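Interim report to the steering committee. The following record documents the input for DUF2388 domain-containing protein (105 residues).
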Amino acid sequence: MSRKSLFGAALLLALTSTAQASSFVVTTDTVVRGVAASTDATSDASSSLRDKKIVEAARDDAASFVGSQGAIRGAKLESAFAHIREQVPTLQASDAQLAQAILAY
């Protein structure tokens, strides 16, 4: 083999291994991003389910609260109020408005 052919083969081999390494990095990054997105979506969905359960559990208490014009305050309703205000600290709603929103939910 001539020196020129040997150099050409070495150059081709170097370029091929670099391309494979780059391809591996891109593939790995894509897989990692996909797993991270899936994990985030699962986390969001399970926290949404937990939020929904807290609010749904307070429906009966909210009905009693609204029906009694605020005289009856159940523990589940108080928990829902605290949870909602924790999730949305800038919310400017009265307990009556929140109870009505829970009933509408």
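The chain is about 85% helix and 0% strand. The committee is asked to note this result when reviewing the revised timeline.
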